[in-house]
């Protein structure tokens, strides 16, 4: 081993920390910004923001945007854009409504059909983009019109309601109650405990493996601090939820997607290929990346997520409406950029999309609570998007010089 | 009383974790051509960025005087206002604007924001005459060759009343004829009193035009040598003397001794290409590669020599997964069996690797880390059930970092931040980890300094000694002569000769490379 590495192991934990933070400035920066926004509105709303009922509310209100943002992040990492997700979500919501209301289909079957429709729509767009080579901006702009029109045709311009209880629960439901605890939702507490255990195990295992491979690790004190911070955050969040009605169903769905896609993007070969494509398409192709197939899959994934978001939104309204999903694509794109995506592709994480989405979501919720009108809300959100990306650009320039 | 245009005194510049320059001195006398030499990462580019204000005043230590006055540039515009103009290796022209528009880009002839076109075109024509560019000023830059584009850059510098012109690797992308013209122009500018700093790896060029050469090594000034006593006099300095300064040791031989491979299958054919023909991707009438057949044996290093446009890169890319042009016949046999190399994954699976000519455009994902670049072509090997083992990935990257001596703080560093030679080693590592039977190296040492070149030659020799077959495409004849067991020559898409190591010389090769294709493209 060289001298450099030995020094890196013991003495310069600070440097290691700085390096890690610097590598993900926008994401860490946004995490801090998110925390600041939460604290600010917590004070401003006299503590109403973090009341258990409102935390549940924030989760449920933003679930469909967050689901879209995760898919959008991957699309943007691959160097593309998808403008059709709002219309597609509306279209799928309408289709689900038609299936359940007009054709009396059971809700699980309708949900499955909806996701399938999303996959087919994604494949349709992916085909034109990946195999024919039409720019994604154009294909999805066409899709935006196409699916919006389709929605209106399906619904004949009217809302369609109501849905079975089970379908509504996708968005409005909570995990079932029952168990020994009086003041807390038992299942939620149990989930919290399991999550803490899994997180600690993962951290410990990662550290051990890094040691095995003689890679740099955080010094013990910092490692413990990191674990304590994570555990504290999980515990606080679980107890908040547990003191209201427990874990919303949609939160579980979102966490499942986050963990699944996060894992794929970080650890799976296909995820690496997405980053490589976005970073340098020509080099990726000459390294054996099947660029067309990967691009195609990225859009299929986006289609499925848009369909899910459409179902969640329809379930929340308990109706399929022609006006559903308007501007969803812009919210999702904004969330992805606030969360660390780059216009030129190749950078970003799925978790970043969640952070970006929450920044927007908490702002929305907080501003509504203190009574700021939607007019000013839009202005503020626009400025936040500009500031987030502007800060990143400025910061990169500073580091780069 | 100072007799210098530029005097840089103990310039020190540090980046996080790296000291790029430590106490560098550089003095340029009026009207001289001053060459700056050094290995990649020696600090040449950083020094020029300090000088031109890319690294603003305050971000470095030390001071410099230009024409006797101290300078504190905040940005490039500030340095340009003083007459310091830098022309980068990658040209900064807008392809879809005209020559005249490019010359006055950012410096437009306008009154109240409205461009005076007649004036612009007339002045552009004047400047073009000065640099010897015979073209219509209204021609789009995209429609003229690289050599002429370089002249447009110089005209653009002249339009800014340049006092000190900095050229970074000005001839890297030019053919011999254009290079010669450019060097003449630089000499011509000197006679008009414009001082010039030239960064170059081509020592022959330096001997031809420079008056003085400053050698940098590891961010320090090693020495300043006089090339010739007075402008126009013959060069007194030898190339070997400059090389000694750059690498800090005498280079008796610039190539490692060839190591023989003596495995049981030594001499078996590893790669056989026969009758390979490729047509131009747009102009289907044109045969870019015409009926080429060649072989490479296990443990053998074979070169392909040819001038620009001979079809060497096109041949390699087309064989490697049909990545160029339209296939029009021919077969590839790998290890004696016919192989399907119609896609890149198939070619890789058959043990073929292609290290591209242009590492920034075709070789690397510059915004990703060293380790992820190294692993990209062999991810399936590092993965179980489609999941990448990140720890093993990092370990592999560390292994290549050590064995190829890639200079980087960690393997998580962005590749874009490494120097050219180290980037090239990352590309080599990437392909070595696919464990190929046959490696095609396309200009493996382009834009790389002498020391790093030697390291790359050593790696190539080691690969051959392990029984791999290596096909090297290079524009530098001494490189081919020094490395290869056998050399093919190509001209206008056709194979024009095959020369064994013992019979090859630069003259022999050059004659074959310029041979007129008897069966010209149909």
TrEMBL record, chain A:
<dbReference type="GO" id="GO:0005886">
    <property type="term" value="C:plasma membrane"/>
</dbReference>
<keyword id="KW-1133">Transmembrane helix</keyword>
<keyword id="KW-1003">Cell membrane</keyword>
<keyword id="KW-0472">Membrane</keyword>
<keyword id="KW-0997">Cell inner membrane</keyword>
<feature type="transmembrane region" description="Helical">
    <location>
        <begin position="64"/>
        <end position="81"/>
    </location>
</feature>
<keyword id="KW-0762">Sugar transport</keyword>
<dbReference type="Pfam" id="PF02653">
    <property type="entry name" value="BPD_transp_2"/>
</dbReference>
<feature type="transmembrane region" description="Helical">
    <location>
        <begin position="294"/>
        <end position="315"/>
    </location>
</feature>
<keyword id="KW-0813">Transport</keyword>
<feature type="transmembrane region" description="Helical">
    <location>
        <begin position="28"/>
        <end position="44"/>
    </location>
</feature>
<dbReference type="InterPro" id="IPR001851">
    <property type="entry name" value="ABC_transp_permease"/>
</dbReference>
<feature type="transmembrane region" description="Helical">
    <location>
        <begin position="335"/>
        <end position="363"/>
    </location>
</feature>
<feature type="transmembrane region" description="Helical">
    <location>
        <begin position="109"/>
        <end position="130"/>
    </location>
</feature>
<keyword id="KW-0812">Transmembrane</keyword>
<feature type="transmembrane region" description="Helical">
    <location>
        <begin position="184"/>
        <end position="201"/>
    </location>
</feature>
<comment type="function">
    <text>Part of the binding-protein-dependent transport system for D-xylose. Probably responsible for the translocation of the substrate across the membrane.</text>
</comment>
<feature type="transmembrane region" description="Helical">
    <location>
        <begin position="222"/>
        <end position="241"/>
    </location>
</feature>
<feature type="transmembrane region" description="Helical">
    <location>
        <begin position="247"/>
        <end position="265"/>
    </location>
</feature>
<dbReference type="GO" id="GO:0022857">
    <property type="term" value="F:transmembrane transporter activity"/>
</dbReference>
<protein>
    <recommendedName>
        <fullName>Xylose transport system permease protein XylH</fullName>
    </recommendedName>
</protein>
UniProtKB/TrEMBL annotation, chain B:
<dbReference type="Pfam" id="PF00005">
    <property type="entry name" value="ABC_tran"/>
</dbReference>
<dbReference type="InterPro" id="IPR050107">
    <property type="entry name" value="ABC_carbohydrate_import_ATPase"/>
</dbReference>
<keyword id="KW-0067">ATP-binding</keyword>
<dbReference type="GO" id="GO:0005886">
    <property type="term" value="C:plasma membrane"/>
</dbReference>
<feature type="domain" description="ABC transporter">
    <location>
        <begin position="6"/>
        <end position="243"/>
    </location>
</feature>
<keyword id="KW-0547">Nucleotide-binding</keyword>
<keyword id="KW-1003">Cell membrane</keyword>
<dbReference type="InterPro" id="IPR027417">
    <property type="entry name" value="P-loop_NTPase"/>
</dbReference>
<keyword id="KW-0762">Sugar transport</keyword>
<feature type="domain" description="ABC transporter">
    <location>
        <begin position="271"/>
        <end position="517"/>
    </location>
</feature>
<dbReference type="GO" id="GO:0016887">
    <property type="term" value="F:ATP hydrolysis activity"/>
</dbReference>
<dbReference type="InterPro" id="IPR017871">
    <property type="entry name" value="ABC_transporter-like_CS"/>
</dbReference>
<dbReference type="InterPro" id="IPR003439">
    <property type="entry name" value="ABC_transporter-like_ATP-bd"/>
</dbReference>
<protein>
    <submittedName>
        <fullName>Putative multiple sugar transport system ATP-binding protein</fullName>
    </submittedName>
</protein>
<keyword id="KW-0472">Membrane</keyword>
<dbReference type="InterPro" id="IPR003593">
    <property type="entry name" value="AAA+_ATPase"/>
</dbReference>
<dbReference type="InterPro" id="IPR053466">
    <property type="entry name" value="L-arabinose_ABC_transporter"/>
</dbReference>
<keyword id="KW-0813">Transport</keyword>
<keyword id="KW-0677">Repeat</keyword>
<dbReference type="GO" id="GO:0005524">
    <property type="term" value="F:ATP binding"/>
</dbReference>
<keyword id="KW-1278">Translocase</keyword>
